[in-house]
């Protein structure tokens, strides 16, 4: 699940093409996984951690 999260949230910032667009079965699996109540809790934490990291990077850049 963390790998899917990174593909969805970090790949767009790299300028690389979205690999999920070329893998419809994988994309469907990821969408379904996000609806799972246990996975949703993990995703909240992953989003929180990513935002914290981005904030640290913004502060370091100034």
Key descriptive features of the protein:
single chain, mainly alpha
The end-to-end span amounts to 33 Å
Overall 3D geometry?
Answer: flat
Number of strands: 0
Query: Radius of gyration, Cα only, in angstroms?
Result: 13 Å
- What value does the average pLDDT take? 93
Largest sheet: none
Q: Residue ranges: pLDDT <50 for 5 or more in a row?
A: none
Count of alpha and pi helical runs = 4
In what range is the share of β-strand residues? under 5%
Give an overview of the whole structure.
The chain is 77% helix and 0% strand. The chain is built from 4 helices and no strands. It is flat. The protein starts with a helix and ends with a helix. The mean pLDDT is 93.
SSE layout:
Elements (H helix, E strand, L loop, with lengths): L1 H8 L1 H4 L9 H11 L2 H25 L1
Brief overview:
This protein has four helices and no strands. It is mainly alpha-helical and 62 residues long. The longest helix has 25 residues.
